[in-house]
Amino acid sequence: MTAHVEPVGWDGAVNAWRVGESLFRMGRREWLTDRGWAELRAAGVTTVIDLRNEDEWGRRPADPEVSERSWAGIDIVSAPTEDPRNAEFAELCVPWLNHPRHYPDVLRLFPDHVATVVRAVAAAPAGVVVHCSAGRDRTGLIVTLLLALAGTDGATVDAHYAAGIRGINDRHRIHPHPEPIERHLDGEELETSIADKVAALRAFTSGLDAADYLAGAGVSPAEIAAVVAKLGHPA
């Protein structure tokens, strides 16, 4: 997996990467500092799409204290990829979506949610950030779908997902309040986990017709073209 994925150095941002010309991904926006928000603006971002449910929003004790003025004028869009109250989803994705083997389930169970995210990306007037909590699987699902929509080669799609694994794994190593379920992986254990998840991602993308899926979910050709343009591909 040799494709290069460009990291983003906004202050405080965790697991932040450039996906395309005007599309970025990251973990929780609450990790950004005031300076990080200013750097996000300087990168041309005017829209932040939050893939979490709203009960996941908010500052935690280890997060920086940030003035609300920092994101004034930035459109924060709530667009959850899932409904955790859905019984089938809750049974499949325990304790949360944490593996690409369940990406087909999310697409099957929540086409309206996924379509809402894609429409929000399309409607953004300039740069866009998509994020969830870790910036790995909900974000990874959306990024994979958008890259597939643009006809991105498989090695690059794999590299973006692997970068998301490594990015949050690095955070687990230094975070002052470790996650109760996930932990930092090192060496062979990390590489084995990446190989397993990337294999599942390849199985997912091999059967994915992103344009057909989104059209079936009600996303218009113009919206699809707008998303592809944000990735820097010909519309």
Catalogue the unreliable spans: none
Largest sheet: number of strands, sense, barrel closure:
5 strands, mixed
Strand content range: 5-15%
Overall structural domain count: 1
- CATH domain class name: Alpha Beta
Helix/strand-derived class?
alpha/beta
Radius of gyration from the alpha-carbon trace, in angstroms: 17 Å
Q: What is the CATH superfamily?
A: Protein tyrosine phosphatase superfamily
Number of E strands? 5
Oligomeric state of the chains present here: single chain
Which H/E pattern describes the elements?
EEHEEHHHEHHHHH
N- and C-termini, Cα separation: 27 Å
Biggest sheet strand order reads 1-2-5-3-4
The CATH topology, please? Protein-Tyrosine Phosphatase, Chain A
The total of helices stands at 9
How would you portray this structure in words?
- A hairpin with a 2-residue loop joins strand 1 (17-20) and strand 2.
- The chain has 235 residues and is of the alpha/beta class.
- The chain is built from nine helices and five strands.
- It has helices at 34-42, 87-92, 103-109, 111-123, 138-149, 154-174, 187-206, 210-216, 221-230, and strands at residues 17-20, 23-26, 45-50, 75-78, 127-131.
- It is globular and about 45 Å long.
- The mean pLDDT is 94.
- Helix 5 runs antiparallel to helix 6.
- It has a five-stranded mixed beta sheet with strand order 1-2-5-3-4, with helices on both faces.
- It has one domain (17-230): Protein tyrosine phosphatase superfamily (Protein-Tyrosine Phosphatase, Chain A), CATH 3.90.190.
